[in-house]
Amino acid sequence: MTLRILFFITPLFFISCSSFYGFFGEKSDFYSKSDIDILEKTTASIDFNYGYDPVVSLNYVFAFAHGEKNLKGNEAKFNGVLNGIDTTSLIQFYEKMYKLKSMTVYKMEDYEWTKDWKNYTYVNKYLLPGFDLFFTLLENQVFLRDKSYRDKVAKIKKEIDDNVEDELENYEDWKNNHGDGDE
User: Where are the chain's structural domains?
Assistant: First the structure.
């Protein structure tokens, strides 16, 4: 009898913990409501999803195991979702996602520089690959939609990279001087 009770209660415990964290855990304020709407629709269309890791303070997009395998087959659904979005909103979303990519790469390089191999490997092997697949699909659609944007994108990416570097360096300086609030 005790074994049966444990058999049924144990899964509920794990479900409760993940639900608790989902409702009360640390959340990201990186995305606007319209970003989340686009992100939910686009990731679902290609069997991807998105999340936030408070340990490394990064948002991410990831592929379910079958998502990578079915990517070519789901590309038309992804494109269909983006076709329902006006060009200005699509470009704004693209630039937001590029900022996330820049932040992820910056942090990965920082982990490499500080020899934090655990977090370097985590970002490099787990967070970045799925995001890169998603971002490539998004970028291709932006370039198809607005052909003139391709001529401007290098300058825009450079500005975003510079801003990300400044933001993250300022945040690290602040954290080093004031602590991160976990004390």
Answer: 27-178
